[in-house]
Amino acid sequence: MPDLLLELFSEEIPARMQAKAADDLRRMVTDKLVAEGLVYEGAKAFATPRRLALTVHGIPTRQSDLKEERRGPRVGGPDAAIQGFLKATGLARIEDAKIQTDPKKGDFYIALIEKPGRATIDVLAEILPVIIRTFPWPKSMRWGARSTKSGSLSWVRPLHSIIATFGPETEDPDVVKFSVDGIEAGQTTFGHRFMAPSAISVRRFADYEAKLKAAKVVLDPQARKDIILADAKQLAFAQGFELVEDQVLLDEVAGLVEWPVALMGSFDEEFLSIPGEVIRATIRNNQKCFVVRDPKTGKLANKFILTANIEATDGGKVIVAGNERVIRARLSDAKFFYETDLKTKLEDRLKKFDQIVFHEKLGTQAERIKRIERLTAEIAPLVGADVAKAKRAAHLAKADLLTEVVGEFPELQGLMGKYYAQAQGEDASVAAASEDHYKPQGPTDRVPNDPVSAAVALADKLDTLAGFWAIDEKPTGSKDPYALRRAALGAIRLIVDNTLRLPILDVAKSALAGLPEKSDAEKLPGDLLSFFADRLKVQLRDQGARHDLVDAVFSLGGQDDLLLVVRRVEALGKFLDTDDGKNLLAGTKRASNILSIEEKRDKRTFDGAPDAGLYRLDEEKTLAKAIEQVRSEASAAVQKEDFATAMSAMAKLRPAVDAFFDKVKVNDDEPAVRENRLKLLNEIRAATRAVADFSKIEG
Amino acid sequence: MDALPAHMRPERSFQGFILALQRFWAEQGCVILQPYDMEMGAGTFHPATTLRALGPKRWNAAYVQPSRRPKDGRYGENPNRLQHYYQFQVIMKPSPPNLQDLYLKSLAAIGIDSGIHDIRFVEDDWESPTLGAWGLGWECWCDGMEVSQFTYFQQVAGVECAPVSGELTYGLERLAMYVQGVDRVYDLNFNGRDGADKVTYGDVFLQAEQEYSRHNFEHADTAILFEQFKMAEDACKKYLMAGWNEGGNQREHLMALPAYDQCIKASHVFNLLDARGVISVTERQSYIMRVRELAKACGEAWVHTEAGRAV
Asked: Are residues A324 and A425 in the same domain?
């Protein structure tokens, strides 16, 4: 079956847009084919800086013929309906329609529509220009003389030519005939901008890819990445170094070249006095080059690896020299910034925060820092941190935001604070908190375990959460501009991973009280707690745990110690994996179901202790005894926060519950006995609430 | 090129470098203009770009524009930061289909051979909030150094560009430093001569950098500057108002250029105030808005002039 080759050749497409554009092209073309009844065998899209390309193989030559019966109006229906039906179906006269008899509704007209399938190449000629015109570039532009016309083509950068061929592997394919804004689809493209700029005529994908390769264009981005990575590693290795791998940079660099050539350059060793992260940020962000390290020490070497887009006739000497000059200038700037920063103590920078607004309703950065300091002092004793150190850490943690290096490289915030704090002789924990109080940033980020860092990190996150809650800027749907979900998840991980005991409600109340914006102190802490509960559910679900168990625990009420919640959930999960757990859950659910039916029927509840004098059967007595025993054992264990023991106590309930349901008829004919039995069922439900609300558990 | 005397070769002299670019773009049909006689932050502010980018008429021009960035002054102590430097500006309306090729040829004309240099077009979307302008294009890199800005204007002075112009801006000092192989801008050979006849960039501009840095950061009189901003703003509005001629069969404007001069002036005064650090973060936004309002009104006036409107 025939294949489609499509290439859209343009001026340089931004690197960051290429992967998605290739994907969009594949998706749009194949979706449209399928919608046209053309099922294909496979498709693959590619992007280079100057082209998007797509191959779709195994497309039928034609659409199959379509036969469709369309039901029309009632025989003898209004003329307008009949005329409409004729128009919609293309029938010339109503006599051409069949009549179908429906025993209930009478006779209807039926039109038999036969739509002969069209040649695929004609379908392509119709759909491709539409796809090109509606292509979802994040930003697109007009250009040239045609840009005066309304409806002129918009593309990411000027589009120069289009290849569109369709045909079987064994024959010369046909050009799909269409044009977009004056660009006729054909079978011509161009090679590498400098090394092989001439026009190339291509027929089908294999031929296209091979000819491009000969014309110094590696079409497949993955192949370019592989080349860059292998060559860069090799270059580093040859000099006894090791490449510092960087996937994001690799992706970007592969989007900047059609013919990657890795080259190594060096810089003056004196620059190695700058922190390695600053060197790397300078070289990576500004110059898109990789850095290398000494495998023995792990420290950066005074080398870098650039990826040129050309095999230079001088072997790259001039290119390396040029890049070295730029990197030298950049590193001297960085060194100057770093050394300038070191001349000012972190605390002396804080005054400037008076001028910087954090958020118009939440005051200045200076006010925010004060709030974090106060909250840190409250949290510190709860998490085992030295209060004085924690306060000092909170005082300095944000100071590096006003340094030159962080101004230049915002991603180094915190880290630079740590270096500057170390340089001015701060305590190691205080210095570390500058960097670590931002952590964890995401589900895979490291969680700081120094109590000082943990205290500042929790204060920072809780101030943020309380603040945005107070001004009603909560995340909605996919919108979370202040990354509040991440902050809550960060707080949860800090608490759980460090096994911290923190009464979140109290801390939240305190955080809210310190804000400039007055807020509803009654409602908000609870709101915030349920936000934590939601985050915890998401996190547990991501870890493969059951989120309904989180509900079962939070539903008990008063659960604002997240660590205990997690432990309870874990113990509950383990318990429910056992046979005892499963059966007890089933028994409890059965008890609850019966109760809710009977409660509805009698319009009353069955609270209160059962009367021992009304027990008629042994199973009732055994169950009552078991409940009493389990309740005291479980609550003692819960008191000791030993949830595993509480759960095994629960397990003892199971045989009694099972036997009860086996032998005892709840709805006894004697009303007093019935009521007593229902009360006993209620006791089962109550007893299990020592560990969780079983009614929230699924299954 | 071989006919050139050695001291005029672009790789030897700064002035030869500028002349080579002018000659190249003259060959492509550009009118070679002289710098605009006002202080401005970039070549884009020259009415030959800002205003001429608007309206349907063809327009191809190239010129050097001294650019003032008061905040970038470093008292002559930084090897490549200047508060006054030269931009070489090319504008072609409509953007020709081979503009990238023309650009690469212009690099060849100043001695940058694409066979041994690594030339790249790296995404850079251009936006000038003060001019109410934006476009898409690239930074052009040569061996890892940004040497030019390449933009397809989509909107200027709040007006949709139809047709779209292509704009090229070369940072002349930086490019010349690269071509001459010097690391300090003041060491650039200005006239291409040797020995006692040699004049360097430093000979021409070092003292100016020192004096203007003092002026920009320490002495520029902020009270006067605030006053000047207001005056320029008022004058701009006044000339705009006076320029409208509603008579006849079409609405036309008769003083777009003088009004726009006042917009340029307001913008430069704002830059000076900014360098003096007397404009707070929140005020900054409002000043930028005020200049933009002027620019937009000038653009609106321009498209009602002889040169700016449809034939």
From this structure: no
